[in-house]
Specification:
3-stranded antiparallel sheet, 38% helix, 26 helices, two-stranded antiparallel ribbon, mainly alpha, 13 strands, 737 residues, globular
C-alpha cells in the first residue's frame, strides 16, 4: 500500500481549452496510468508494451529500468563497483541495501502514520512499542490488544509531494524536511516559493504532476496519450524532468515555457516539448480554421510539415495562393507533400518580391497588374540565374510553378466579380514561351556499371552488420525488382503470391501515380529473400494480425509491427562510404592502340534510386520491347521508357568505356519492316547521360509521316496479365546473391 495524500489540483472552474483537453482524454488511458485528479501522480505500468518498464533482476529491489537492463540505475552502479560478472553479482546479492524512498502507511490496522522503513513496516511509535516495550514478533504485534491506532499528521505541504509527515512538529515529510535544512543556508531563501517549486521525491515508476495548473496537467496527459497510441515511448525521466522545470518556472501551459533550450532543457526532453506542442496544435483544429492562417499545420489536412505563406507580401495574392493550396492539397500524395507545396508557395513569393521592387504600389492594387509585371519577373529570374543566385533547375521550376498557379486562379474563378482577384487583367499570365528550355537530361545514364553492382552485392553482409537485416532486405529487393525505395519500404507482409502457373509475383503499391495493387513477376531467389523476411517478422510479432504487419517493420516506436521503416538513405550512404573505392575499366588510346585502365567510380552516383535505373537499363540491354518495359516499370508515358533506348539503323552496339570486355549484343526488337527500316534498341552505354535527348518514337513518326523508311507507330497492346514474364532477364552475369 502506498501513501496517497489527496490534494485537488485546482478547484477553479475549467476554461474552454482545458475542458476540451480533459474531454479528449481516454478513460482507458487514465485507468492504465492509475490517474486520479485528486492525487495527481502518473504511474507507469510495468508490463505495457510502450509505457512499461522492466523489473530489476536484483532480488529485493523494487525499482525498474527504462532503457538499459536488466538492472536499475542504483544496482548498476553497485555492479560496476563490484568487479563481478553479472551472473556472479545477481547470485551474490540477495537484498537491496540502498536507502529506500518508498513510503507507505503503517501495517498496524487503521494507523494513519507512515512506516519508519520498508524493513520495519511500522510507524516510529509502533516500531518502538513492538521492539522495546512488548518485544514480540510482527504477527503477534498486529493482533496484540495493547497497541492502538494512531492518527496521522497529514500530508507534506510541498505542492508536488504526496507523502505523509512523520511528526507533528514539521509540516513536511522526512525527505523535504532534510532538504529544507540545506536550503535555508541561502540568505535569500523564500520558504513559500520553495514549497511551490521544489521537486518531489522521485520514484521509479511515478511522475508527480502535483503543483502544476490543471490545464498544464491536461496538456501533458493528452500528449502522452497520443504518443502512446502512436507507439512512441515517453520515458519517465523525460516527463519527470519536464514537470520539474515547468513547476520551477511557474508555467500556466506548455507554451509558457518558451524556448525549451533557453528554459534549461536539453536533448530528448527539449525535443519532447516541441513534439507535444505540435500535438496540442492539432487538437480541435479543422481545415477551415487552419486555411485562414498564414502558417498552416499540414497535419490538419492529413500530411506532415507546415506551409508558410508569410513571404507573399500582397494580401490579395497571399489569400489567392491559400485558396489555390487548399484546392491543390487533396490531389497530393506521398511523404513529400509539404516540400512540393512549399516550393510552389516560394515561387509565388518570388513573384511577390518582384512586384515589390518593380511597382510603385508594391503590387497591392490587383487591377493594375499587367503583362509588363510578368516580363519584369521573368527578367529578374534570368538575372538571378545568371548571377548564380538561382540554379537553372530552380529557374525553370519557379517559372513553371508561377504559371501553374496563375492559370489555376482563373479556373477557380478567383478573378470573377466579387472574388478576391476581381479586376485582374487577362494578360497577367505566363505563357509557354516564358518558361526557359530545360537542359538536356533524362533518367538514362544513371544506371550503375556491372563492376559496381558486383561489388555492392559482394558486401551486402557488411550492410546487414552496420544497419540491420531490414535495410539489407530492402536493398536486395530494390536491386532485384527496380521498384522505388518508398514502394519497397511500405510493402505489406503478404506481398508475395503465386500465379496459377507457379510463378512468383510481388504485390506493391505505386504511391507516386496512385496505382494500387500492382503485380510484378520476380525470380525465385528474390522470393526466397522475401519469404525469409516474412518468417522473421512473424516470429517478432506473433500476436499481430498478418494483414496489418509490414514486411520491413521499423525498430522505432513500433510495438505491434504495423509501422514500416521510413527509408534507407542514411544507412545506405554510410555503407557505401565504408566500402573501398570502386574501380571500373576505361579504354583509352595509347600509341594508336586501345589500352584498358582502371578509374575510380564516383560514389555519389550510388544511391537507392539508382537501382531502379539499373534495373530498367538492364532490361533494355536484353532487348525487352519498350512497350513491355513501360508496363514493367509502371511508367505513365512511353516517352519515359524510351529514355533507355535510341533510334538507330544498324544493330551493332558501341562499347562504353568502363563496361569491361565487350558483350555480344542482344537481339534488338524491330518496330518497322523493310530492308532499310531502322530498329529500336537499347542505348549504347556511351550514349547514356551524354547530354543528347532521344527523340520519341511518336514524334519521329509524326515528323516523318509519309516516309516509309521511318519507324511505324509503336503498338501498345492492351495490358495482359504478366505476358512478359519470359522476357525478364536475370541479374548481370557473375553478380552473386
Amino acid at each position: 500500500m502506498r501513501a496517497a495524500v489527496a490534494l485537488p489540483l485546482s478547484a477553479a472552474p475549467l476554461d474552454a481549452r482545458t475542458a476540451e483537453l480533459v474531454g479528449a482524454l481516454d478513460p482507458a488511458f487514465l485507468s492504465l496510468v492509475g490517474w486520479d485528479w485528486d492525487l495527481g501522480v502518473f504511474f507507469y505500468p510495468r508490463a505495457h508494451p510502450v509505457l512499461g518498464i522492466g523489473e530489476c533482476d536484483v532480488v529485493g529491489c523494487d525499482k525498474g529500468f527504462e532503457r538499459t537492463g536488466p538492472l536499475c540505475s542504483g544496482c548498476r552502479l553497485r555492479w560496476n563497483k563490484s568487479g563481478l560478472s553479472l551472473e556472479e553479482f545477481l547470485g551474490a546479492v540477495t537484498r537491496y541495501n540502498a536507502q529506500h524512498v518508498t513510503q507507505s502507511l503503517c501495517r498496524f490496522p487503521a494507523c494513519g502514520r507512515p512506516w519508519r522503513s520498508p524493513t520495519a513496516g511500522l510507524c516510529q511509535n509502533h516500531h518502538y512499542q513492538r521492539v522495546q516495550r512488548l518485544k514480540v514478533s510482527m504477527e503477534e504485534f498486529l493482533v496484540h490488544p495493547v497497541p492502538i491506532p494512531l492518527a496521522g499528521f497529514g500530508g507534506c505541504e510541498v505542492a508536488a509531494c504526496n507523502r505523509y509527515r512523520v511528526s507533528a512538529t514539521s509540516p513536511y515529510c522526512d525527505a523535504h524536511r532534510q532538504r529544507l535544512t540545506k536550503a535555508r543556508a541561502d540568505r535569500s531563501f523564500d520558504e513559500e516559493r520553495w514549497r511551490l517549486t521544489t521537486a518531489p521525491v522521485s520514484m521509479g515508476n511515478e511522475v508527480s504532476m502535483r503543483g502544476l495548473p490543471r490545464r498544464l496537467v491536461a496538456e501533458l496527459l493528452y500528449c502522452v496519450q497520443v504518443r502512446t497510441a502512436n507507439g512512441i515511448k515517453t520515458y519517465g525521466f523525460w516527463l519527470r524532468t519536464l514537470c520539474e522545470r515547468l513547476r520551477a518556472l511557474r508555467c500556466e501551459d506548455l507554451d509558457g515555457l518558451g524556448d525549451p533550450l533557453a528554459a534549461g532543457l536539453r536533448g530528448q526532453t527539449a525535443t519532447l516539448v516541441l513534439t507535444m506542442r505540435k500535438m496540442l496544435g492539432r487538437l480541435g483544429a479543422s481545415p477551415e480554421v487552419e486555411a485562414r492562417k498564414d502558417v498552416w499545420n499540414l497535419a490538419v489536412f492529413g500530411f506532415g510539415g507546415t506551409a508558410n505563406f508569410t513571404r507573399i507580401h500582397q494580401s490579395a495574392l497571399r489569400e489567392a495562393t491559400k485558396l489555390w493550396a487548399a484546392d491543390d492539397l487533396p490531389r497530393r500524395r506521398g511523404k513529400s507533400v509539404a516540400r512540393a507545396l512549399q516550393a510552389k508557395i516560394n515561387a509565388m513569393a518570388e513573384l511577390s518580391q518582384s512586384l515589390r521592387f518593380q511597382r510603385e504600389d508594391g503590387g497591392h492594387v490587383v487591377a493594375l497588374l499587367d503583362r509588363g509585371d510578368i516580363t519584369s519577373f521573368c527578367t529578374r529570374l534570368a538575372f538571378r540565374a545568371d548571377a548564380g543566385e538561382l540554379s537553372v533547375y530552380q529557374w525553370i521550376r519557379t517559372a513553371r510553378s508561377v504559371r501553374a498557379v496563375l492559370n489555376r486562379w482563373r479556373t477557380l474563378g478567383l478573378t470573377a466579380r466579387g472574388q478576391i482577384l476581381e479586376g485582374l487583367r487577362a494578360d497577367f499570365v505566363m505563357g509557354a514561351e516564358d518558361i526557359p528550355d530545360e537542359p538536356e537530361d533524362s533518367e538514362a545514364g544513371k544506371d550503375l556499371p556491372d563492376e559496381v553492382m558486383r561489388e555492392l552485392c559482394d558486401n551486402l553482409d557488411l550492410l546487414e552488420e552496420m544497419s540491420g537485416v531490414e535495410v539489407r532486405v530492402c536493398t536486395e529487393i530494390l536491386i532485384d525488382t527496380g521498384r522505388r525505395p518508398d514502394e519497397v519500404c511500405r510493402l505489406p507482409l503478404d506481398c508475395l503470391e503465386r500465379d496459377p502457373d507457379g510463378s512468383l509475383v510481388l504485390l506493391y503499391d505505386n504511391h507516386k501515380a496512385y496505382r494500387l495493387g500492382r503485380r510484378l513477376p520476380i525470380g525465385k531467389a528474390t522470393g526466397a529473400v522475401i519469404a525469409a523476411q516474412q518468417e522473421r517478422v512473424r516470429r517478432r510479432f506473433p500476436d499481430t494480425p498478418a494483414a496489418v504487419l509490414k514486411l520491413l517493420p521499423s525498430s522505432v516506436s513500433n510495438p505491434a509491427g504495423t509501422k514500416p521503416i521510413s527509408g534507407i538513405w542514411d544507412q545506405h550512404r554510410s555503407w557505401v562510404k565504408a566500402l573501398p573505392d570502386f574501380l571500373v575499366p576505361i579504354q583509352v588510346q595509347e600509341d594508336g592502340r586501345p589500352v584498358t585502365k582502371m578509374r575510380p567510380f564516383d560514389k555519389s552516383r550510388i544511391f537507392p534510386y539508382a537501382y531502379r535505373h539499373s534495373f530498367a537499363q538492364r532490361h533494355a540491354d536484353q532487348g525487352v520491347p519498350p512497350e513491355v518495359l513501360k508496363e514493367l516499370m509502371d511508367h505513365r508515358h512511353l516517352m519515359t521508357t524510351q529514355a533507355y533506348y535510341r533510334i538507330a539503323g544498324p544493330p551493332a552496339r558501341s562499347h562504353r568505356p568502363g563496361d569491361g570486355p565487350p558483350v555480344r549484343p542482344a537481339r534488338q526488337p524491330r518496330v518497322a519492316q523493310g530492308p532499310r527500316a531502322p530498329g529500336l534498341r537499347a542505348r549504347p552505354p556511351g550514349d547514356r547521360g551524354s547530354g543528347h535527348r532521344l527523340r520519341s518514337l511518336q514524334g519521329a513518326n509524326e515528323r516523318g509521316r509519309g516516309r516509309p523508311e521511318l519507324p511505324a507507330e509503336v503498338p501498345l497492346p492492351g495490358l495482359r496479365a504478366l505476358h512478359h514474364r519470359h522476357l525478364l532477364p536475370p541479374r548481370p552475369g557473375g553478380i552473386p546473391r
